């Protein structure tokens, strides 16, 4: 009876350009289960769920809902069939009440007027039945994050959803709120609702889910009963044991420490962003910082560069303390920076390739003299860099926004390596790139290291960290949990640390 | 190698086609606006052909008409440049009107109260005073933006009223012509006036405005500072990460933008009116926004659009004299042009791209042996985007 399939996907494929986000996924969801979808960033979880909820339409394959093939043109159509999604970022209007938010965009019968009282009554009834504890007459702006999330769940229930997708629902919640959410999810399950729970936190999945499907690089690795698997198994499935890091030349230790951070603390509006971060990178060394997205990666790089004010701590270059830092000074000191969001932070998309390439050096010769830009030199340089990095571009004068993501990243990389940097801070240097382009970037970074550059590699892709790093640290909730040499690093252990499990706890589960 | 060559050819070809379609679309906008204006004239019972003939004669029909057009275009060009320059740094300076007034006021103060200088000293001093007046006025909004994050749009608009009433107060009170009855200052001394060109109402202010346009073009596209301004204007966040001092640029650009309007204000006084009085500007500052818009926010483009609007004004005056048709008709045409230009920028983008693509395909198909579709795709970057956004 428990094995009735409510939704099934058959060979579902979704491509974005040359990138395959979902590669022939065939999954089945049972009625009344909490089904976890586990995978690293970019594994294709969100793409899959966006197809189920009507935000995207698949390129190939079929979705069977209640045994019938369905094709949704919009989330509204999916909602009409009974599929609802709660996004990571809430879609609520703060100035309106709960009832107004919930009923927004819905028509009640034939009446052109909004039956506020009726909506409130319906919401109260649902709230009692599922233990949501939502007051329909409160303004959304007065609710806590956890309560807002329950309003989002209420929205799906109000529209008659039987199949509810939660995209990383715990990412924004405090531990007590998580507990509350889990209570609600159990009630929903008892009432026969099917829940898809997207996460990469092993602990939570073990606590609440019945079955787990693991995705990696757009492919389904497998679906297992949660009770039959260990956390270590899941971590292994998620990260992929079969992908072995290439054997790389070990760096002789003993080089002097070039770039160092001591006890960095940063917080904003009382929220702690970074806590006591210390590390040192020797010359010719790559320090990889692994971690799940949103654990302080962006803040760490911005603090180092001087874009984010710190409460305490110091940053040292060649043993000398750098006082006030800002990007221009860091550039002058030979610190290159590859930002996480290349389109927002890294490039001026409407400007040409040649102009973007000089963004760090436009003030000095040969690109300018006496405040006048030397257009010929700028163009020659662009032609040289385009050749050197084999950027696929119509010409040096083309706007950089017209290039593909991979080629945009090449432009940034070329620009930063033009500085001949002594230190490089690289955030997610290959995000969204295909394998070939990513390899190219990796090769360049290893070359820079071999020239003596100290590289801080911050990435959420563990494979990348394992491939490139000489030493590896794990960032979790703004804190560096552990630093280890590449040779001693075990995927299982890093996976557990990334999921916030303590090292000794990991040992206990594995053995 | 061959591929590179082809890519270069495509690039230059595409750029040419781009410019060409742009010109066609802009000319089309003006043509449609004139048609629409003609319809309004018909409804109003005026023969459009006759009216347009009068406007044309008035604006460019003879040397005097054209000179009058340029006289009208001068303050419009200053105001347009003022808006353009701030816009390129991502700022919306709606305060050209107020900056014109304060520039005129400061210049007039220097003209009236700094006596005994030869013209080659006095005139530059007055112009610089106008500059400073406009710069300070815009600088207030710039400072509030940088220091407090206050919207420069709101502040510049509000400062307009302050400036207009300030001038009204000054010319009815402290600076009123001694012994005069009208709310205006005394006539400026000859040493502070801008010389006339060709023995007409046209004055050197027009040349100053054109020089300012060229200077701004040079600053924006040839200098290190211009590079910073454009980067800040297009992507403030990236500029910050690259190490460009965003706040400093915002303040400086705001001030220079105001300075340009300030010269414009003084030029109107010293070139045309010869004395400062209440409400001397019939909204040049606001019309400057339209000038900048139609000029594509490009300093040199502003020259053309300022002359276009100046021509409509002087032509309309001529028309009113001859037929009694109200000059407000010209505002209908002007508004239609603005609407179409905005449509041009935001709605017809896709259409233009398709036209350019098909033209490029045709030319490339004739020129090279390669498959045309693929080349166009490469040229336009179509199909090259990958990954998720």
TrEMBL record, chain A:
Superkingdom field: Bacteria
Subcellular location: Cell membrane
Ranges where the ABC transporter domain occurs: 7-242, 259-502
Topology class, membrane: Peripheral membrane protein
UniProt entry tagged with the keyword Transport: yes
One example GO MF annotation: ATP binding
Principal location listed in the UniProt entry: membrane
One CC-aspect GO term: plasma membrane
InterPro entries: AAA+_ATPase (IPR003593), ABC_carbohydrate_import_ATPase (IPR050107), ABC_transporter-like_ATP-bd (IPR003439), ABC_transporter-like_CS (IPR017871), P-loop_NTPase (IPR027417)
PANTHER family xref list: CARBOHYDRATE TRANSPORT ATP-BINDING PROTEIN MG119-RELATED, GUANOSINE IMPORT ATP-BINDING PROTEIN NUPO
Protein name according to UniProt: ABC transporter ATP-binding protein
UniProtKB/TrEMBL annotation, chain B:
GO molecular function: transmembrane transporter activity
GO CC annotation terms, alphabetical: plasma membrane
Keyword Nuclease appears in the UniProt entry: no
Location(s), subcellular: Cell membrane
Pfam family, one: BPD_transp_2
Lipid bilayer topology: Multi-pass membrane protein
UniProt-listed InterPro entries: ABC_transp_permease
Bilayer-spanning residue ranges: 23-49, 69-88, 100-121, 127-146, 153-171, 202-220, 250-269, 289-309, 329-348
Keywords: Cell membrane, Membrane, Transmembrane, Transmembrane helix
This protein's name: ABC transporter permease
Organism in which the protein naturally occurs: Paenibacillus soyae
């Amino acid at each position: 009876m428990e094995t009735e399939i409510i939704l099934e996907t058959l060979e579902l494929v979704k491509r974005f350009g040359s990138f395959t986000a979902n590669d022939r996924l065939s999954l089945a969801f049972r009625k009344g289960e909490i089904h976890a979808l586990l995978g690293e960033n970019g594994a294709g979880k969100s793409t899959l769920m966006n197809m189920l909820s009507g935000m995207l339409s698949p390129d190939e394959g079929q979705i069977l809902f209640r045994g019938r093939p369905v094709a949704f043109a919009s989330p509204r159509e999916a909602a009409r069939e009974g599929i609802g999604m709660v996004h990571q970022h809430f879609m609520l209007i703060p100035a309106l009440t709960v009832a107004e938010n919930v009923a927004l965009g819905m028509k009640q019968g034939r009446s052109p007027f909004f039956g506020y009282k009726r909506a409130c009554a319906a919401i109260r009834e649902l709230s009692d039945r599922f233990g949501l504890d939502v007051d329909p007459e409160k303004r959304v702006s007065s609710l806590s994050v956890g309560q807002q999330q329950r309003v989002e769940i209420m929205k799906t229930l109000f529209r008659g959803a039987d199949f509810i997708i939660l995209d990383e629902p715990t990412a924004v919640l405090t531990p007590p709120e998580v507990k509350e959410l889990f209570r609600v999810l159990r009630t929903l399950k008892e009432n026969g609702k099917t829940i898809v729970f997207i996460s990469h936190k092993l602990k939570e999945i073990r606590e609440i889910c019945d079955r787990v499907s693991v995705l990696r690089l757009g492919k389904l690795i497998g679906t297992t009963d949660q009770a039959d698997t260990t956390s270590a198994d899941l971590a292994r499935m998620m990260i992929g044991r079969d992908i072995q890091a290439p054997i790389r030349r070990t760096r002789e230790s003993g080089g002097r420490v070039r770039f160092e951070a001591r006890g960095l603390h940063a917080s904003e509006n009382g929220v702690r962003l970074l806590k006591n971060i210390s590390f040192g990178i020797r010359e010719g060394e790559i320090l990889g910082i692994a971690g799940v997205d949103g654990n302080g990666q962006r803040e760490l790089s911005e603090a180092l560069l001087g874009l984010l004010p710190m409460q305490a701590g110091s940053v040292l270059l060649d043993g000398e303390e750098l006082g006030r830092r800002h990007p221009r000074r860091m550039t002058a000191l030979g610190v290159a920076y590859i930002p996480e969001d290349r389109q927002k932070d890294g490039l001026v998309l409407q400007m040409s390739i040649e102009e973007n390439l000089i963004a760090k050096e436009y003030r000095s010769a040969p690109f300018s003299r006496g405040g006048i830009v030397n257009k010929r030199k700028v163009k020659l340089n662009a032609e040289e860099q385009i050749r050197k990095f084999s950027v696929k571009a119509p010409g040096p004068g083309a706007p950089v926004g017209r290039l593909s993501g991979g080629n945009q990243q090449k432009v940034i990389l070329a620009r930063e390596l033009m500085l001949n940097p002594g230190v490089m801070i690289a955030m997610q240097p290959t995000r969204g790139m295909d394998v070939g382009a990513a390899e190219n970037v990796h090769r360049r970074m290893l070359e820079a290291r071999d020239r003596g550059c100290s590289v801080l590699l911050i990435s959420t892709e563990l494979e990348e960290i394992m491939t490139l790093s000489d030493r590896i640290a794990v960032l979790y909730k703004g804190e560096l949990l552990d630093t280890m040499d590449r040779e001693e690093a075990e995927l299982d252990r890093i996976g557990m640390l990334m999921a916030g499990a303590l090292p000794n706890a990991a040992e206990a589960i594995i053995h | 190698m061959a591929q590179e060559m082809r890519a270069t050819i495509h690039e230059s070809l595409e750029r040419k086609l781009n410019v060409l379609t742009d010109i066609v679309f802009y000319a089309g906008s003006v043509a449609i606006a004139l048609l629409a204006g003609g319809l309004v004239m018909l409804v109003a019972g005026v023969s459009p052909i006759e009216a347009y003939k009068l406007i044309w004669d008035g604006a460019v029909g003879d040397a005097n008409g054209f000179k009058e057009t340029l006289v009208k275009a001068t303050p419009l060009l200053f105001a347009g440049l003022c808006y353009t320059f701030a816009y390129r740094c991502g700022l919306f300076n709606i305060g050209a009107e107020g900056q014109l007034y304060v520039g005129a006021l400061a210049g007039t103060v220097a003209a009236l109260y700094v006596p005994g200088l030869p013209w080659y000293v006095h005139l530059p001093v007055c112009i610089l005073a106008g500059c400073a007046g406009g710069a300070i006025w815009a600088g207030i909004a710039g400072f509030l933006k940088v220091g407090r994050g206050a919207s420069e749009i709101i502040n510049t608009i509000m400062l307009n009223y302050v400036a207009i009433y300030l001038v009204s107060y000054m010319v009815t009170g402290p600076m009123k012509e001694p012994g005069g009855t009208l709310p205006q200052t005394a006539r400026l001394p000859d040493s502070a006036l801008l010389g006339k060109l060709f023995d007409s109402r046209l004055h050197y202010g027009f040349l100053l405005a054109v020089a300012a346009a060229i200077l701004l073009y040079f600053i924006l596209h040839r200098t290190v500072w211009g590079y910073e301004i454009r980067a800040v204007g297009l992507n403030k966040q990236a500029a910050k990460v690259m190490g460009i001092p965003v706040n400093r640029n915002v303040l400086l650009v705001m001030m220079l933008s105001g300075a340009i309007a300030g010269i414009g204000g003084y030029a109107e006084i010293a070139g045309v009116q010869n004395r400062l009085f209440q409400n001397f500007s019939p909204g040049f500052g606001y019309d400057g926004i339209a000038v900048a818009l139609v000029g594509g926010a490009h300093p040199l483009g502003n020259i053309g659009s300022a002359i276009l609007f100046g021509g409509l004004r002087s032509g309309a005056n001529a028309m009113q004299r001859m037929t009694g048709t109200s000059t407000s008709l010209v505002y209908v045409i002007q508004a239609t042009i603005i609407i179409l230009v905005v449509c041009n920028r935001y709605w017809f983008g896709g259409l233009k791209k398709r036209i350019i693509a098909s033209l490029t395909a045709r030319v490339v198909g004739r020129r090279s042996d390669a498959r045309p579709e693929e080349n166009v795709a490469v040229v336009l970057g179509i199909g090259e985007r990958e990954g998720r956004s």
